[in-house]
Structure formats: structure tokens, C-alpha cells
């Protein structure tokens, strides 16, 4: 008995010691796959398709990083995480990066020791109600029962919003978005609240989407973006600039279709040349090969293409670009210069 | 003193004896194992602290004093989003205790009934109970929790179905509203109690302090009720003892049932009348029913699932306890002229309890620990508040989990302690 306890302890120590390590890039390259944390399933953002292949807006970021680092957009191990498990997964080293519509907040960035690599979707929290409830504004929700995904910033925003407006409500906390939707559809709550992008995504999956309306109020700022562990700046740079490469590609008109041709020889746009590796040594500066950005864009397309194929207006989710348009079109999406 | 002892004393202690001498060998190995175990645990802890330091984190419980920022639906004590994480933790702990207590009571009742009936000579009843036991204890409790929750959410009507002239649903007897969000039942309160009533408090100023005083007043009212009930219990036991003494003296047992009944009913009725008991009926206002007591769907699901699941185990304990009493006892009692009911009460059950109580303790511990599955249906127990939202919002995983472990350990040890006291009182007295 005592002996087995001892050996158990030894085994546990081995596991614990294998935990955090600083050089994520070497780990990923040695492993040959990127471990990327995603949601347990939000249509348009991250969800396995009929063949079990993960698809979506956040998934594309994972694939772009895998393409840039490993040259293969399919060398990704997707790890589904809930609102509760995501930070532990990342902090413990189970995943190399988290691309799971996670809100960039001060305490997550500093106290939880993570680094947000940028924003890939500017969102805000909203409310969805059944249309026949006859509610047209969130200010009419006094006394309502509200379904909410537990462990998210929406939980805190909800408490703040009702307190500031001096309204009462009954929270129904639920572990995953899918269960929350089930409860909402069964009428166990009057209101379902989460980020407006996720509301639109989930509403698109309903049997009768028109029976439900999303209220006009946006009660919070929710900048969503990928994040990595604090303390590994090289890896942080790689994920950050891969995201910016996708954004810059849209700005300069580099698409999935023309990227091969543009990268085959130097063009007369030096910015595009530096981005695609036909000029300068940008790849070497972040420890990757010269074609890192070209590989990423060839794998998933530029930011605009990712947006329109996964969540854009032509898809069932039907989100407009809005704040997420390029800065040249009046949005907030902006990549620093590649030089 | 044996010969070898004398020899060892003569030659003095040699180091080789630690391995070769059977007197010392077991101690040597135990000491070595202990040292290795301490070193191993020490290494694990230092590894944890070193890794935390590498990540730039430390162990600190300061977060407990910060405002929690989230709301909790079931609040046994006043709480809002501006309260501290510590208060949220206490609310969660109380919710855990509430559901664990309710489930322990109903599981025991269910278990005893099912266990006794499974031994019934009636074929249908005994087979029905066998089906109950086998079906419920062989399916994971988490599944039962989710099944019941889903059934409640989908079968019962929504609150707005109760609205209007063509309402598709109506409250049972006009007072109990079973909705898919939970069951609203009338809430008893005292208009003439020792504290201010709620209406008075709101009518006077609507001030928080006054409302709190009213809440404290109603606590006093309920303590009075509890004291009266305990008094009634003591009175009925005194009546039974008096009946026993009379029986021993005269050989005839006086009829006591009406005395016991009066001891239960009269005092509580009088007290309720003096304090002005009335009922607050739930009414549909706005999105939900207002007023009355709400038993949320999550509480019902968790309570029912834990009760029927653990009840199946307790039924088997009860059956085992009864079967453990030899048939000779029943026959001897029957030979003395006792009727079957009296045989069960006076001869079988007191002896069966010795066998039933120890596994029953484990079942109570299981209920308390299984209640941590509450988050599956959004019941805000300790695992959902401290181990869920607080952990997530503050990122203090290790601190929160340590506190959680400490809480469950303390509660389990307390339950064991009190049940062991009870076990000592029913076990076989050896003379």
C-alpha cells in the first residue's frame, strides 16, 4: 500500500515537471503539430463539419499559425475548451495557443499571465429574446430570467448592466453555449445573453431563426482575440504577426488565389514583397522561414476571405463587417507596417 | 524476557540488526517508507511553488475580499454582485448543504421503504422494488440529474402560459405554480411575529437596514417554531416513557396515541395563531411569478436525482441489514406471541440497524460529494461559485481548489463524526 502510494507520487511528479516550458516554438516544431484551444462548438467560429474537420473563423487562425510555423495547415490538434477550462489548459501547457473568442481584459492579460496577440473580432454583448415576448429594448427586461454561459465576462457585464439600470433579474448559469441554447429554446429563460456574434451564430442554427430577435443594446466592449502564455515573447510574436499578416494581406489585396503568383517573384509593391518573403528577411527575424506569411495566406486566405467564408453576410450567420472592416473602410482592423 | 533479548542486551545494539533482526526490521522499513513519502510530497510541493514562481504567480487568498461581480440566483443569505468572493463562497456552501440535507432525508425515506418492500411476500411489489433498485443504481447519477432537469424544462409550462384569459396552464389549487423554471409554492410568514414583517418594513422606509431587521425578525420567528417542535418531540418521548413505566408496573399499556397527537398539534397551532401565520401566494407579474417560494428546476433536478439514486443503494443496505438477522429471531418472537408488525419494530429493526448504519454513513457522504455535480444543471453550489465562477474570474485555481477540498473534507468528517455517535448508540452492547 505505502509503496503504491509512493510510485503514484513519483509518476505524478514526472507529469507535473513536464508542465510549463518557455520555448513553445521548439516544442511545436519537435511535436510536428500545433495544439490549439477552441470552443466546444460555435457555428461559424469553431465547429467540426460533417466530416469531423474543424471549420470556422477562430479555427482559421489556428490553421494560419500552423501553416506559418510547420508549413501544414492541417498539422493542428484542436482541443475543445469550455469557458471554465480554457485558461487552465493554456496556463498548464496543454495547448500552445487559445483561439476561442476570448475577451481581452486587463486582469486576464496581467493577473492571469497571458498575452493577447491582437483582436480578430470586435464584439459586444447583446441579448436575444423570443419575438413574441414583445420586448424591443433591454431596458424592458426587469424581472426576466436570463440564461448565461458561466465563467465568462458576459456574466459580470450582465450583473453590471442590471445593477446600473436598477433592474432585477434571475440568472440561470449554464456550462456550455449549446446547453444554454437548449434551455432558452425550451423557454426555461426569457433572455439569452452572450457576445452578439455568438448570438447571431447560434440563432442561425435554430429551426425558426425569425422567431427570435437580438435586442439593439450593446452592453459591453468585447475585443476577441487569440492569446498565448506570458513569458515566451518569440512565440507571442509569431502568433501576433501571423494574425497581422492575414489582416495586411487583405489591405494589400493579397488573396488565397493570387498569393502563389505574387510570391513567385518580387512585385512592384515593396510591402507585399516583404510580407511574402520576396524581399527582406522578415521570416528569419521571428525564427521562421521566408514563406511563413505566404503559407498562412495560402492555407486560409486573407482576413476578409476568412470573415466572409465563415461568418460573413453570405453565410447563414450573416454578420456584417461593421467594426471589423479594414481601417481604410471605417473599421478598426489595422495591421502595423511590415518592415 | 526471552533469551534473544538477553543476548542482544549483552552484545549491545549493532547496525546490522536493523535489517536482520525481525524485532527491528518492520520498523526500519516503515521509517524508510515514511522518509521517502515525506521527501516525495515535499518535492511535489516545491515543484508546484517553483512552477508557480516561474509563471510569476503566488499563492494568495486576497481575492476572497474583492467584490465578486456576479449574481447568484438561490441566496440563503443576502447577497448581490457587490458582495465579496468570500460571501459568494458562503452562499455556495449553504446551497451545497441545503441540497445535501434534503437529499439525505428523502434518500433515507425512499431507501427504507424500498428496502423493506423488496422483502415483501407480494411478488409484484418485491419485483417492482427490484427493478427500481437495479435501474437507478446502475445508471450514473449525472445522467439522472440531466434527465430530470431536461424533463422539468420541457414538460412543465412556461410562466407566460399562465397568463391571460385563454391560459393553457393554471396553478394547482390556485396556489402552487409548476413552471419549467421551477415550482412556486406559497411562502408562510408571520404578520404578528417578533420582528417587523416585510410589508411593514417596506411601507415604513424601504431602507436596507430596516429590511435586514425584518429578515432577522423572521429568523427569530422560525427559531420559535423550531423550539416549539423540539418541545413537542420531547413531550411525546416523555409520554412514551410514562406508558412504558405504567406497562411495567401494571402490565397494561395505556392508550397514548391521542396524547402524542395533541402534543404535536396543539402547541404549534397556538403559536402560529398568536404570531399570525399567513401565506404569500405566488402571482404572475411581468416575466415571472413573484412572491412565494421558488424551488428552482435545478434544485428539484439535483435533489430528486440524488435521492432516488442514493435511495437505491440505501434500499440494498436496509435489505442486507434485515436479512442479516437470523430467522430464528423472528420465530422466537412469534413463539412469544408477538404480531408481525411488533416483531419488525421490537426485534428485527433494532438489530438490523447495527448492520445498516455504517454503510448508511458512506451513502450520506456520497450524497454530499455527488452534490458537486450541481453545475451540470446550473445549481449554484460551492463547486459552481468558488470552484466555478470565482476560480474563473480570478484565475486563482490552486487556492480555490484547496479551499474546495478543505470544505468537502470538513463536511464529510463532520457527517462521519455525528453518524458514528449514532452508530455507537445503536450497536450491540456487549456486557
TrEMBL record, chain A:
One of its GO terms (biological process) is amino acid transport. InterPro entries: Bact_solute-bind_prot3, Solute-binding_3/MltF_N. Keywords: Signal, Transport. Residues 1-22 form the signal peptide. Residues 33-262 form the Solute-binding protein family 3/N-terminal domain. It comes from the Bacteria. The keyword Zinc-finger does not apply. CDD domains: PBP2_BztA. Belongs to the bacterial solute-binding protein 3 family. This is AapJ protein. It comes from Jannaschia aquimarina. The lineage of its organism: Bacteria, Pseudomonadati, Pseudomonadota, Alphaproteobacteria, Rhodobacterales. The gene is aapJ.
Automatic annotation (TrEMBL), chain B:
It comes from the Bacteria. GO terms for molecular function: transmembrane transporter activity. It is found in: Cell inner membrane; Cell membrane. It is a multi-pass membrane protein. Coiled coil: none annotated. The keyword Transmembrane applies. Residues 93-419 form the ABC transmembrane type-1 domain. The keyword Cell membrane applies. The chain crosses the membrane at residues 27-45, 90-117, 138-156, 219-236, 257-279, 299-322, 371-389, 401-422. GO terms for cellular component: ATP-binding cassette (ABC) transporter complex. GO terms for biological process: amino acid transport. Keywords: Amino-acid transport, Cell membrane, Membrane, Transmembrane, Transmembrane helix, Transport. InterPro entries: AA_ABC_transptr_permease_3TM, ArtM/GltK/GlnP/TcyL/YhdX-like, MetI-like, MetI-like_sf. Gene3D superfamilies: MetI-like. Belongs to the binding-protein-dependent transport system permease family. HisMQ subfamily. This is GlnM_2 protein. It comes from Jannaschia aquimarina.
